[in-house]
Amino acid sequence: MKILVADKISPTGIEYFKQQPGYEVVVAWEVIADWSASPEQVISLIGDVDGIAVRSETTVSEEVIAAAPKLKVVGRAGVGVDNVNIPAATERGVIVMNTPGGNTIATAELTFTHMLCGSRPIARADAEMKAGGWPRKTLPKGAELYQKVLGVCGLGRIGAEVAKRAQGFGMTVLAYDPYLTESRAETLGLKKVDLDTLVKQSDYITVHMPLTPETKYMIDEAAIAKMKKGVRLFNCARGGIIKESALIEGLQSGKVAAAGLDVYEDEPLAKDCPFRSMDNVVLTPHLGASTSEAQESVGIEIAEQMVDALNGGMVRNAINMPSIDPKDLEKLKPYLNLGEKLGSFIQQLSNDGVEKIKISYFGKIINLDTTPLSRAIQRGYLARISPNVNDVNAPSKLEQLGVDVETTRSSTDANYTELIEVQAIESSGKTRTVAGTLFGKSQSPRIVSIDGHGVEVNTSGTLLVVKNKDVPGMVGYLGTVLGKDGVNIANLSLARDQGEGFAISVVELDSAPSAATQAEISGHEHIEKFKVIEL
Ligand SMILES: NC(=O)c1ccc[n+]([C@@H]2O[C@H](COP(=O)([O-])OP(=O)(O)OC[C@H]3O[C@@H](n4cnc5c(N)ncnc54)[C@H](O)[C@@H]3O)[C@@H](O)[C@H]2O)c1
Ligand SMILES: O=C(O)[C@H](O)COP(=O)(O)O
Predict the structure, then answer these.
(1) Dist CA 139 CA 152 (whole Å)
(2) What strands, in cross-sheet order, belong to the sheet with 431-439?
(3) Which of 7, 56, 264, 284 to mutate to test the pocket of ligand 2 (most atoms within 8 A of CB)?
(4) Where does the D-3-phosphoglycerate dehydrogenase ASB domain start and stop, copy by copy (predicted)?
(5) pLDDT for residue 250 is more than 80
(6) Residue 524 annotated in active site
(7) Residue 340: active-site member
(8) What does the pLDDT look like over 61-113, one tens digit per residue?
(9) Based on the domain organization, do 417 and 532 belong to the same domain?
(10) Out of 25, 29, 189, 237, which residue is the most buried by the measure of CB atoms under 10 Å away?
């Protein structure tokens, strides 16, 4: 495996990659002798790479992903993945993962540092002292956090830690987060309010959400207009949650007393940005996660996560794929192969124009997290249709094909202790069905029903599925015609439909019949249809 470490992650993380047997590690800044690589440099280094580790510096664009045909994992040593083109990665089946949590405390503490620096003229005092001054009389008076109201927008990991610290300082905390449950707010001892209330009642406001279409410019001119005069604003999350032009106006007018910023709409911050010359603003260059502890933690976490994923183990903290508990994954392993085969079988059995795949789980399997199994079924369905399909991109590829996927779960099944059923519903309304289970102690996968007819068929090799009139001599006919072609029959499973007078024969073959033999079979007067299925 080849890893490209594109941004400055901790040496411990890099060492972890290097210690893995069969791993080659390219460290970008050693090759290009610069802190961060340009897009062209990343493209020039990524050609045969299996995994790329980044922080927020390197942009993993569609072009970068396209230039890396072997790429399997993008690892972000940190939280925000806005520098990674996730749809492009998903489309190409590349896992994108991050390390949530590792830099929470570092960022919460930086936010608090900003709140304190926004309350007292620390930065100015320091600059003037260093310039030889003693500005005791000239500096503006500060303010206390004690008994002030802090509005926290976004009560995730960092927002919650900031809120805890604020309570320690004797602040009243108002919380705005539409996804925060009442019970979590209660546990944190916070008052949950709407955004309007928060902006009107807070003395300090800090934002801790990702930048999304919903959060972009959430704090704009209109929001600032509603705020108390002398409000103080802080952004250590993502540039653009607070609209910079509105903040500049607010600071200039005096409506906003102070601001503390670690992130910007454009990074690096433009040299002529008005913030740079404002006394009441403290600026840091995206330093939230830059503590030794946080970098050590996210660097080693991302290296371990990437190695696990690349070595076929557990996938953790993936943005474009569900994570699963390792114990559940272990239990699920025997089913994954069956699921993939059922997906492939139903695709080959169906005609064109499948609009929906319905996956139904019955019996004790519903006690497991079946998400990876549903992905394996979808991957199996697409294996012959879509190149480079994998568990990451299978759902989006089906969506592009206009195929809906529905999953249902039921605790009982009449005939088996557990059963996986996959149906393909065609635009004509016709539904094809296959179901399978695991047999015995060895947990051997078997197909046990096709279109509602009970069979018992292995899930590998070549299968001939024949629907024929239930008349004498059909089995003999198939044996003869296949024998003439030199095709050996390994096993035969028959199901009869007394009502309709049809039988389903599933013949397991050692090799595929020739085109001429297939034509001969399809021309037989009692054979309504047949399919050769490769599993
Ligand atoms: N400055 C830095 O160096 C630095 C370091 C780490 C994280 N960050 C950034 O800080 C932010 C928060 O990180 P986190 O680890 O706490 O993330 P998180 O996912 O734990 O929390 C985000 C919270 O935002 C909330 N949210 C989402 N949409 C919202 C909306 N429309 N309105 C209000 N709340 C909304 C979510 O419900 C969630 O509680 C992220 O943008 C992350 O990239 C910056
Ligand atoms: O989202 C994050 O984790 C922060 O923005 C940290 O970014 P960094 O790893 O580039 O410091």
Answers:
(1) 29
(2) 404-410, 354-363, 418-426, 431-439, 444-450, 453-458
(3) 56
(4) 331-450
(5) yes
(6) no
(7) no
(8) 999 999 999 999 999 999 999 999 999 999 999 999 999 999 999 999 999 99
(9) no
(10) 237
